[in-house]
UniProtKB/TrEMBL annotation:
One of its GO terms (biological process) is proteolysis. It comes from the Bacteria. This is Carboxypeptidase. Residues 1-22 form the signal peptide. SUPFAM superfamilies: alpha/beta-Hydrolases. Keywords: Carboxypeptidase, Hydrolase, Protease, Signal. The lineage of its organism: Bacteria, Pseudomonadati, Bacteroidota, Chitinophagia, Chitinophagales. One of its GO terms (molecular function) is serine-type carboxypeptidase activity.
Length: 512
C-alpha cells in the first residue's frame, strides 16, 4: 500500500508535517515550510531542507507492517549557521509504536567513497527491495517488491547519502570540496548531521546503531568515536558489512599473505581444487588455510630473497593446492600473486575472468592474455539492477520527484586519505564505552574487502584482547554484498537482530 501524504498544487508545495519540528542550528527561528521538489526543476537544484512524507505497508517475516517514510534533504551547517550542503536521506519509521525510547534507531550508509546508500536500502535491510533472483543476479522486469527480511519490524532506519551522492549536493560551487572529501572531513560533517537529525526526530533516548558497508565501514568506525567525543552521543553497536582495512597498518609480508584465504575460498567455489580440499565444506577447509597463512606464509615472505629455494618451492606448491593457481605462477611472482592477477588467472584456461567484489561472477575479456581483467563483471550487473529500480522507487513510491540526477556514484575526488586511524578510533570508543559492541559481516568471495582482512581488523583494534567478548564476526558464502543472495540475506538480517537485542541491556549499569 502506498499513499503519498502531499497534494501537488503548484511548482513547489508546502507539506505541513512533523518535519517542521526542527530549528536551524544557531538560530531560534523555525525552519521554513518544507517544499516538495517538482517533476520539472529547470535550475537542477533542490532546496537543502525539504521533506516528502509517504505512508506504506510491507509484509516482513509474515507480518503486515505499516510504516511512514520521510524522504528529503537536510542541511549541513557551517559554524555561522548557514547551509553549505545537504545530505539526502530516507527515514523509515514503523507506525503504532508507543515507546520509541526502547526502539532501536539504525543509521545506515554505504561507501565508495562516493556512492549512495541504495545498496543496503533496497538490497538488504529496507522494507522494499529490488527484483533479483535468489542468488542476487538481476532479472527483468526492473522493479521493487517487499523485503521479507527487512529490519524495519525491529528498528527504525535512516539511510543517508553523503555530499554528491544520491541527491545530496553542495549549496554553491564556491563551497570548498575539501570540507567533505576526506576520511576525517567525512566523519566530522556526518557526525554533525546525525546530531541534528536525531534531534529533529526526537530520538536521543533511543538505542542507536551504525551500519556501514565497504568504505562505509571506515566512516562507521570513525563516527563511533566522533559521535561519542564530539557530539556526546553514545552508541550501542556498530555493524561493519564487508569492512575495509580501517586504516590499520598491514604492510609487506602481512599484506601479501592475508588475501590467501580469500583466494582459497574462491578457488573452492569454482571447483579448482583437488582432493582432499575439493571434497570439504568451505567452513571446514578454510581454517587450515588461515593457519597456514599466519604460521607459515607470513614468516616465509618475511625472509624475502634469502628464503631457501626448496622452502620457496614447497610454499608455492602448498599455495597451488589451496588456491588453484599454479606453483609456477607463484614462483614467477616471488610468492606474491596480486588479486588482479588472481582474478585473471584462476579461470584463464576456461576463457573467463572472475569478479572483484563478488568472485562468483564470471566475465569475458577481449583477450585471454594479460595480468588483470578488463572490467568488474559483478559491478556492471549490480548497476544494471540497482540504478533503474532506485530511480523508479524514489520518484514513484517515495514521491520525491526532481530533474536532478540521482548519483549512484558521484565524484568525490581528490579524496584525502591522510591520518586514517578509524579502526584504532573504534577500538578507543569501545574501551571508553562499555556498552558499545561490534558486529562484522563478510562474504567469503569478496575480493575487494576480503574476509580474512576483516578478521585481522578485529584482532588489531583490540591489541590486549579485552574487547573480544564484545566483538562478533560472521562469514557468508557470497561476495561483497552478501545480502543479495537470498539465503544469506535471511540469515544475516537475523544475525543483526540478535546482535541488536544482545547489545541493549535495560536496567543494568554501564560500567566495567
Amino acid at each position: 500500500m502506498i499513499k503519498i501524504l502531499a497534494v501537488f498544487t503548484s511548482a513547489f508545495l508546502t507539506i505541513f508535517s512533523n518535519c517542521l519540528m526542527a530549528q536551524r542550528r544557531g538560530n531560534s527561528i523555525p525552519i521554513p515550510e518544507y517544499k516538495n521538489p517538482t517533476t520539472v526543476s529547470p535550475s537542477m537544484k533542490i532546496d537543502p531542507d525539504t521533506c516528502v512524507i509517504t505512508k506504506h505497508s510491507a509484509i516482513i517475516r509474515g507480518v503486515n507492517i505499516s510504516y511512514t517514510t520521510r524522504t528529503g534533504t537536510m542541511p549541513i551547517w557551517n559554524e555561522d549557521g548557514s547551509a553549505i550542503a545537504d545530505i539526502f536521506y530516507t527515514y523509515y519509521e514503523r507506525d503504532n509504536i508507543n515507546d520509541r525510547a526502547k526502539r532501536p534507531l539504525l543509521i545506515s550508509f554505504n561507501g565508495g567513497p562516493g556512492t549512495a546508500s541504495l545498496w543496503m536500502q533496497i538490497g538488504y535491510t529496507g522494507p522494499r527491495m529490488l527484483n533479483i533472483d535468489d542468488e542476487g543476479y538481476p532479472i527483468l522486469p526492473y522493479g521493487m517488491r517487499d523485503n521479507p527480511y527487512s529490519l524495519l519490524d525491529d528498528a527504525d532506519i535512516v539511510y543517508i547519502d553523503p555530499v554528491n551522492t544520491g541527491y545530496a549536493r553542495k549549496t554553491s560551487k564556491d563551497v570548498p570540496d575539501a570540507l567533505f572529501y576526506g576520511v576525517n572531513q567525512d566523519v566530522k560533517y556526518i557526525a554533525d548531521w546525525i546530531n541534528t537529525f536525531v534531534s529533529r526526530i526526537n530520538r536521543w533516548k533511543s538505542p542507536k546503531f551504525l551500519i556501514g558497508e565497504s568504505y562505509g565501514t571506515t566512516r562507521a568506525a570513525g563516527l563511533a568515536e566522533a559521535l561519542q567525543s564530539r557530539e556526546w552521543m553514545f552508541l550501542n553497536g556498530v555493524i561493519l558489512v564487508s569492512p575495509t582495512e580501517l586504516g590499520i597498518k598491514r604492510d609487506g609480508p602481512v599484506s601479501a599473505a592475508l588475501k590467501t584465504p580469500y583466494f582459497a575460498a574462491t578457488a573452492w567455489y569454482h571447483k579448482k581444487l583437488l582432493a582432499p580440499y575439493a571434497d570439504k565444506k568451505l567452513k571446514d577447509f578454510l581454517p587450515e588455510v588461515e593457519k597456514f597463512t599466519i604460521e607459515e606464509f607470513i614468516p616465509a615472505l618475511a625472509y624475502g630473497g634469502i628464503l631457501p629455494a626448496e622452502k620457496k618451492a614447497a610454499i608455492a606448491k602448498k599455495l597451488e593446492s589451496y588456491t588453484g593457481i599454479k606453483a609456477s605462477v607463484y614462483l614467477n611472482n616471488n610468492l606474491d600473486v596480486s588479486p588482479w592477477l588472481f582474478w585473471k588467472e584462476l579461470l584463464r584456461e576456461e576463457g573467463f575472468t572472475i569478479g572483484r567484489l563478488d568472485s562468483r561472477y564470471k566475465g569475458i575479456d577481449a583477450k585471454d592474455g594479460g595480468v588483470e581483467p578488463d572490467y568488474n563483471m559483478e559491478l556492471v550487473a549490480w548497476n544494471n539492477a540497482f540504478a533503474p529500480a532506485m530511480n523508479d522507487y524514489v520518484r514513484n513510491e517515495l514521491g520525491f520527484k526532481t530533474d536532478l540526477k540521482y548519483n549512484v556514484f558521484g565524484s568525490v575526488f581528490p579524496w584525502d586519505n591522510n591520518n586514517n586511524n578509524t579502526g584504532y578510533d573504534l577500538g578507543n570508543a569501545m574501551r571508553q564505552n562499555p556498552a558499545l559492541n561490534l558486529f562484522v559481516q563478510s562474504g567469503y568471495f569478496d575480493g575487494a574487502c576480503d574476509y580474512f582482512n576483516a578478521k585481522y581488523n578485529t584482532w588489531q583494534l583490540d591489541p590486549n584482547g579485552k574487547l573480544q567478548n564484545r566483538i562478533k564476526w560472521e562469514g557468508y558464502e557470497s561476495g561483497h554484498m552478501m545480502y543479495l543472495r537470498m539465503q544469506d540475506r535471511k540469515v544475516a538480517t537475523q544475525h543483526i537482530r540478535d546482535f541488536m537485542k544482545s547489545s541493549i541491556k535495560y536496567g543494568i549499569p554501564i560500567k566495567y
